[in-house]
Amino acid sequence: MRRRQKKQAEKKKLAEKKAKEAAEKGEEAPEEEKEEKEESEKEDEPMEEEPQETEPPAVELDDDEKEMSFLPKPIPDLTQQVVSSSFAKFSTPDSDEGFDDIRYEWDKAAKAADYLHKWVQEKKLVTRVDNITPGQEFKEKSAAFAKMFKECEDKLKEFNASGSKKKKSDAEAPEIGSVDNIHDAGNGRPLYEKFTFEDFLLMQIRFEFAALLWAFKKDTGDEDRVGIPMDHLGFYFNKYYKKSISPKSFGATDIPAMLALIKDTVSIKEKVLVGELQVDLDNFDIFVKQTEEARRERCRRIEAGDEGARLHFVKQEPAKAATPASKPAVANSAGKVVQGTPAPKATPAPKAAGAQGPAKGAGKKGGKGWGK
Question: How many CA atoms lie within 13 A of 73 on its CB side?
């Protein structure tokens, strides 16, 4: 401010000097000097002060802001890792904990406890349980299902090889609900006598997702976790089965489209995968019956002209190269579903003529020829 005033004073003084010199010579001051003088005089005039507001402007809150009880902080009090590992144990203080007096600033005790409980429930739907591990019961049930799965494959192979029994039409087949023995639905016919490799794959993923939900609730030990958030489904599936979900193998564009094929077993509600079966996985017959029911319905729709009911699964051949011990189930050329198993250890190829082997001591730090 002072520098500006000093500059204006110097400018005014120079303009007056030039005007005086021009007057002594009987000349009129140049237009530029007149303008500078007038501008300098205007700047010297006191400026009118703007009226100050007596009342602050009114502030309106939107609906989301009205619902907020706490001011958001740019830096949280706890790290995300600490919150994720301990938020399920958060609670409001209680007199039994030894407090002499408990006072609540915003709400009453009951309302504060309800607010915290709701927050914890919502947090469970978006927070991943990173330290979860498959329990022993899950491993036992997975092994039992694999045994039953192979039994179905073997019995169907024997039935087809006999060639003495012509397959009945679906109209002649017994009611699924009345079948007590899936391996003999009448006259030695297995309930799954018309299963193709697609049906076996559908039966397998029915068990996998049903067992995953059952184990997730059991291994977390939290009854409030009614399902698995879809955002974390791939993480938990890999944790339990050591493989990823492959929608393209089932002719689907994404996981929800793939799960729509087994909507009688699992479904998505509010971005959470939940189960549709009220069973404790003690009897695996339900997965065979669900698959047979879906097969009959699919055939009825196709016969009625609904081409959208056809399945477009990708039929893969077993990999020849060495692969991890656990991989997604694939089907061989005969339509038989086989589980992923480690490939036999490949033998080294014979050395080409004239090829030189590694230098003596190679591979040992400090050995002769090391690093060459």
Answer: 6
The predicted pLDDT at position 48 comes to: 58
Give me the half-sphere count of Cα atoms (radius 13 Å) on the Cβ side of residue 49: 3
pTM, two decimals, is: 0.64
Among 270, 274, 275, which residue's Cα sits nearest to residue 126?
270
Round to whole Å and give the CA distance between 15 and 11. Answer: 6
How far apart CA 212 and CA 180 sit, in angstroms, is: 26
How confident is the model over 56-65, as a mean pLDDT?
Answer: 82
pLDDT at 364 over 50: no
37-51, 130-144, 268-282, range with the lowest pLDDT: 37-51
pLDDT at 306 exceeding the cut of 50: yes
In sign, the C-alpha dihedral spanning 121, 122, 126, 127 is negative
Mean pLDDT of 80-91: 80
Q: Enter the tokens of residue 253.
A: 């564009």
Alpha carbon separation from 346 to 17, 231, 241, 282, 351 (Å, rounded): 104, 39, 26, 41, 15
Q: How many CB atoms lie within 10 A of CB 248?
A: 11
Q: Tens of pLDDT along 248-259?
A: 999 999 999 999
CA 213, CA 236: separation in Å to the nearest integer? 10
Q: Tell me the domain boundaries of the chain.
A: 2-33, 136-309
User: Given this model, what pLDDT does residue 65 score?
Assistant: 83
DSSP letters for 35-54: HHHHHHHHHHSPPPPPPPPS
Burial letters for 9-36: b for 16+ Cβ neighbours within 10 Å, e otherwise?
eeebeebeebbeeeeeeeeebeeebeeb
Which has more pLDDT, 295 or 39?
295
φ and ψ of 275, to 5 deg: -90, 150
Q: For residue 274, what are the β-bridge partners?
A: 267
Average pLDDT over residues 123-130: 84
CB-based burial of residue 154 (10 Å sphere; 0-12 exposed, 13-18 middle, 19+ buried)? exposed
Helix%, strand%, coil% for the chain, nearest 5: 45, 5, 50
Q: Which two tokens stand for residue 77?
A: 């009090």
Supply the pLDDT for residue 351: 43
H or E, element range at 338: strand 337-338
> Are the CB atoms for 293 and 280 separated by under 8 Å?
no
